[in-house]
């Protein structure tokens, strides 16, 4: 795999258009820089839930998204964490089965899997109290908010409220405008209003054109719309190219301050870098507001207080997508933002002034390619090109803040842009870091390096910062030095985050990557002595089944073999669209994912697909135990039959026009 910078285009030098960037960054219209009360606290802290064991009342711990917990877990007790209980995860999605941080209130854990199904689990015993199923796939992250007796969340295209005591659905409201949009976030909830956004994609594909991210404020009791904030215009910056362009939306809940304001980070524009006809984003001219912007809004009206765009005319999917974090340092209220571009930014929460920004993780010289495109200097840009951070890199998951230090989990994983429309990503080659920065100055305090990417966010308690890494490790680092204080092997690979409620730490082994690994939610508790099962013993296809597969799978194309062939292929296609399309390209299914190899090029036989889907590995999740042997066989037969056949195939399926 390419080392850092190993693939820089020979001899090319970038003109750094410093003035242009500065000009674009200073267009923030400011409002309400009223009284400055140095002593007031920044956000509504903690949760209201009465609990014996402790609470984690918001998706990111508190209303300011600090992911800082209080309680007895610290460097002297952490080694006594043992497994209190586990609950199996049944969903199997593009990015594993699970990508939410649970909510803990009233001694109950509220959690959602990547099929949008919601469970209420007894914190003490792990017993499932109720479950409400939606079976609506999401690429994640997703998750819940809890307040006023209700549990709020999203499916692949809607927002809902459930009765907190029973799980009964109270209302459901579709949010998407078309089949190319979706919902991928834990909502925010404050003072009776639910905040939830759409994004320009869903489990069947992203950035297919005409996708607009819209933040909706909904009445928590009725689901009625209070206001909507269009994070990008419905004309998508050029009304002639609405069918190609898309962008914006939120991937995480807002931060709430105590003055009735919310802070949101808005995601990237697309296509990226562009299309063959309109390279380098030429179908979407200009800075593409409000993509890659931090926006402060009035919570009750949706009016803009100020905004700051950190990356105009983004070319590389470098979302500013993480939840903004509210904190204080040097006598001012601050808001911190970050995302896949691999920078951490600090702003004055009152007037929006940028205080500092700091590059984290590996960058290889493309951070200002957007300025070249904006200036029309296309001769300075070319494909193929390998870019750090990649589309699953940078600060990919949530930061945490405690005591004047911000902790950013960074993924070092490049993307190879083969052309304007074809990208390649070697997910197994990813590595990562936890970086600690001084909140007041942005200075780096320490870096801890990991052999695989930390997709597990940062969570702080008792002078420890926790994360998980993709290889299935749970880590506790010393907040002062970055040294490892404790580590634990989870029973499967993971991209799950962590919630801490009192003496209990909740996480998941969410991304099985080898034979026998099973996805599960796990509660670790001080003094508990259990162990999580590593699985194994799940029935593998027998010899007889393999024979049947060969006979039924064949190399026949649709209609060829008669019999059940067409029906089986339809079933296989349905599974592919739900489970595989987000990562693989396969024209017949209208799939254009780039995380795994292009299956039209690879043209694998059914046995290869079957083995890979069952056992995973190399960055691909294992589906054995999540899909039945029969389902795996049908998707394998389908892929073997259609790969490289150039799509077209009648069959009404496929989403991309
Ligand atoms: C999270 C992303 C992801 C999902 C979801 C995913 N794959 Fe993969 N897949 C990968 C990656 C990454 C590789 C490359 C693995 C490697 O290099 O060993 C891969 C490899 C493969 C291969 C190549 C195997 C080989 O050895 O040549 C096949 C076939 C395949 N996947 C089929 C599927 C099917 C079918 C599904 C749905 C059931 C699926 N994948 C779901 C990421 C994914």
Automatic annotation (TrEMBL):
Biased composition regions of type Gly residues, renumbered to the chain: 553-565
Signal peptide: 1-28
Keywords linked to the UniProt accession: Electron transport, Heme, Iron, Metal-binding, Signal, Transport
Pfam family, one: PQQ
Domain of life where this protein originates: Bacteria
InterPro entries reported in the protein's UniProt record: Cyt_c-like_dom (IPR009056), Cyt_c-like_dom_sf (IPR036909), Cyt_C_IC (IPR008168), PQQ_b-propeller_rpt (IPR018391), PQQ_rpt_dom (IPR002372), Quinoprotein_ADH-like_sf (IPR011047)
Domain Cytochrome c intervals: 567-643
TM region(s), chain numbering: none
Ranges where the record places region Disordered: 44-72, 531-565
Gene3D superfamilies according to UniProt: Cytochrome c-like domain, Quinoprotein alcohol dehydrogenase-like superfamily
Protein name (Swiss-Prot/TrEMBL): PQQ-binding-like beta-propeller repeat protein
Organism: Conexibacter stalactiti
């Amino acid at each position: 795999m390419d080392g850092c910078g190993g693939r820089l285009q020979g001899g090319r030098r970038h003109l750094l258009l410093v003035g242009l960037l500065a000009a674009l960054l200073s267009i923030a219209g400011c409002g309400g820089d009223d009284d400055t009360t140095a002593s007031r606290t920044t956000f509504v802290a903690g949760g209201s839930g009465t609990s014996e064991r402790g609470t984690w009342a918001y998706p990111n711990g508190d209303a300011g998204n600090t992911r800082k917990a209080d309680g007895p877990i610290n460097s002297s007790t952490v080694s006594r964490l043992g497994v209190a209980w586990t609950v199996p995860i049944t969903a199997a999605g593009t990015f594993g089965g699970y990508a939410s941080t649970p909510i803990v209130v009233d001694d109950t854990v509220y959690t959602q899997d990547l099929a949008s199904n919601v469970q209420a689990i007894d914190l003490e015993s792990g017993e499932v109290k109720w479950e409400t199923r939606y079976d609506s796939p999401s690429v994640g992250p997703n998750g819940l908010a809890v307040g006023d007796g209700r549990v709020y969340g999203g499916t692949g295209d809607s927002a809902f409220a459930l009765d907190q005591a029973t799980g009964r659905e109270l209302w459901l409201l579709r949010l998407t405008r078309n089949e190319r949009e979706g919902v991928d976030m834990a909502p925010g909830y404050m003072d009776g209003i639910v905040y939830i956004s759409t994004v320009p994609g869903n489990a069947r594909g992203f950035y297919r054109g005409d996708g607009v991210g819209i933040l909706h404020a909904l009445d928590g009791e009725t689901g009625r719309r209070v206001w909507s904030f269009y994070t990008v215009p419905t004309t998508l910056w050029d009304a002639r190219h609405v069918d190609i362009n898309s962008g914006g939306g939120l991937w995480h809940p807002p931060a709430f301050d105590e003055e009735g304001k919310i802070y949101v980070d808005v995601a990237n524009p697309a296509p990226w870098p562009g299309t063959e006809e309109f390279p380098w984003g030429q179908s979407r001219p200009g800075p593409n507001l409000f993509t890659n912007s931090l926006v402060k809004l009035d919570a009750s009206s949706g009016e803009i207080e100020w905004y700051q765009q950190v990356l105009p005319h983004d070319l590389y999917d470098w979302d500013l997508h993480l939840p903004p974090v509210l904190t204080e340092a040097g006598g001012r209220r601050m808001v911190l933002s970050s995302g896949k571009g691999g920078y951490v930014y600090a702003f004055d929460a009152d007037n929006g002034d940028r205080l500092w920004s700091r590059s984290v993780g590996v960058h290889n010289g493309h951070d200002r390619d957007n300025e070249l495109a904006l200036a029309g200097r296309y001769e300075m840009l070319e494909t193929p090109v390998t870019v750090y951070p990649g589309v699953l890199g940078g600060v990919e998951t949530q930061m945490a803040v405690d005591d004047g230090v911000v902790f950013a989990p960074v993924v070092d994983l490049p993307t190879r842009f083969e052309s304007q429309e074809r990208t390649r990503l070697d997910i197994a080659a990813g590595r990562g870091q936890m970086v600690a920065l001084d909140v007041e100055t942005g200075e780096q305090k320490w870096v801890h390096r990991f052999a695989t990417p930390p997709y597990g966010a940062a969570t702080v308690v008792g002078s420890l910062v926790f994360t998980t890494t993709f290889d299935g490790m749970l880590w506790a680092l010393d907040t002062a030095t970055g040294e490892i204080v404790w580590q634990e092997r989870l029973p499967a690979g993971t991209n799950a985050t962590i919630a801490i409620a009192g003496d209990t730490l909740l996480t998941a082994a969410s991304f099985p990557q080898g034979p026998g690994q099973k996805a599960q939610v796990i509660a670790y508790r001080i003094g508990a002595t259990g162990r999580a099962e590593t699985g194994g013993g799940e029935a593998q296809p027998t010899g007889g089944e393999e024979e049947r597969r060969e006979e039924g799978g064949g190399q026949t194309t649709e209609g060829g073999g008669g019999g059940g062939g067409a029906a089986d292929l339809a079933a296989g296609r349905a599974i592919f669209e739900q489970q595989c399309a987000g990562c693989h390209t396969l024209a017949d299914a209208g799939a254009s994912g780039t995380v795994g190899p292009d299956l039209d090029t690879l043209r694998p036989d059914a046995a290869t697909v079957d083995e890979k889907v069952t056992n995973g590995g190399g960055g691909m999740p294992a589906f054995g135990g999540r899909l039945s042997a029969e389902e795996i066989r049908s998707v394998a037969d389908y892929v073997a039959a259609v790969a490289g056949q150039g799509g077209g195939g009648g069959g009404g399926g496929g989403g991309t026009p």
